[in-house]
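Researcher: Next entry in the queue.
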Amino acid sequence: MGVHHSYDCIQQHPYYIGKPKVDTLPGGLADFFVYTAARMIALGAQVEHTQSLIARNAGANAGKVGMLLSEFGQLGTFPDFSRRFARSEGQAVMNALALQEFALRHAVGADRTALTDYTFGAMPPELAAVQASDAQAAKAAMNAPDDSTAGDFALFAGPGPNTVVTPPALVTKLMRAHLGGALVSSRVERSPTVASCKGDKFDALQVLTSRDADGSVHVVVINVDPNADVAASVSGFAHGPQLIVETLASPNINDENTPEHPNLVAIVAKQIDVGASLFTFPKHSVTAIVFSPK
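Model: Structure for this entry, 294 residues:
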């Protein structure tokens, strides 16, 4: 990273490795959800630390160095009460939290660990043989059991042709669509706090606000409360009289899309006139609000 070695990008892998024995908390699924959310929020500090190293060591080139975040989020395996968490509504919320942290720190790009996989079907024998040669080392690194759920991390769950779009893929689409070119300050009032048995405590509503080239303000609100909808106001910026609300939500944290029910978890959109000052954000959900230009 010294000043004599020019470069324009740093690649980093900010993730948290799940371990069932550690993550099986007294409060069950809700406790696990908040505990994991705290670790997703902490990924921002990892990125910030690397940025400080670039600023300290890259000399005059520091301002030209971007960060690419690869295989971000939560890897590993999960407790028995949420064995398929990697492809669930809950994991979508975790991905949104990580992407929010990266956007706040101006990362140039981020990608997940797998685009597609044979999640719901048998892998061709020749491909299975190739993967098996590397699987033992990966399992040892992640403390994974023999029935590894690595295929659950695919954003698009195969095999095709009826590929399933997972909740983490949907939230990536939502976050990408609602990140404008300039970050904007905002206020969220009436947000409660959530806490885990491990002492993690933070605001239930995590917010990312930006303005696009047309002047519309995009507010992404992530409700990390595993049990309750939250009514709160969003303000602090100028906007016009109309807004669009898009929400990714589902009744249960473990809900997922499958070949039998490919649209159980979906993005629901509606357009309304600005009226009441309170918005209701469903439990463990991601909502994007687009305010028309002033």
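Model: The first helix runs from residue 20 to 23.
Researcher: Noted, moving on.
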